[in-house]
Design goal:
With 103 residues, the chain is mainly α. It has 4 helices and 2 strands. It is elongated, with a radius of gyration of 14 Å.
């Protein structure tokens, strides 16, 4: 995490930041194992791999927040079926901080 923060802080103004978090526990295919559904985006946090993915999603959101605050453009690589877009901190970020579009 520290290296990612330092990398973003050292970028030239108006740079492009590409973030590609691991989406294995966020995919539709493992939603039944992870317990991630639209009504429960955090899933079953008793499983260590689900909890680790939740921490990773918070860190990615913080990096996007930092990039936005510094005036950079950012892209987050996630498949359309991933549950990353349902995470509470990401939804707050999208609704109140940055204009986010889906491709």
């Amino acid at each position: 995490m520290r290296l990612a923060i330092l990398a973003i802080l050292r970028l030239h103004p108006c740079s492009l930041v590409i973030l590609a978090p691991v989406c294995s526990s966020m995919s539709f295919m493992c939603s039944s194992q992870a317990g991630r559904y639209w009504y429960s985006p955090l899933g079953n946090e008793e499983l260590c791999w689900v909890k680790s993915a939740n921490v990773m999603s918070c860190r990615v959101t913080l990096l996007a927040w930092l990039a936005q605050a510094l005036g950079h453009t950012f892209m987050i690589e996630q498949p359309s079926s991933a549950k990353f877009g349902d995470m509470p901190r990401w939804r707050f970020f999208c609704e109140t901080i940055a204009y986010v579009t889906l491709f």
